[in-house]
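Sample intake sheet
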Amino acid sequence: MKELICITCPKGCHLKVDEANDYAVSGNACPRGAVYGRNELLHPVRVVTSTVRLEGGPTPRLNVKTDKPLPKDKMFECMALLDDVTATVPVHVGDVLLANICGTDVNIVAAKSVL
């Protein structure tokens, strides 16, 4: 039995996931907790947020994030790739700065506009 704290909402339910019983989840207050608990053991994913260099803007860095969750085991590889990314003004929210990172279908996109 694996114990987790659900991160899908601020409630923070204490989940118990029974690996021997087809990953049955208990302790969740909503259906999203059950989905989270099962997925966290079978295929954990995270949205990565960070910054990249920005040329021509009022600040030296630009907020970026993944456009969908990335497999958790690819997070450090993703962060290393961001060291070589430089965005140039103008940048719009959602502009793809790095496509198909780590061989996944996940992109790094601008999280804010700088004009």
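Comment: The chain has two domains: 2-43, 49-110. Residues 10 and 34 are 15 Å apart (CA to CA).
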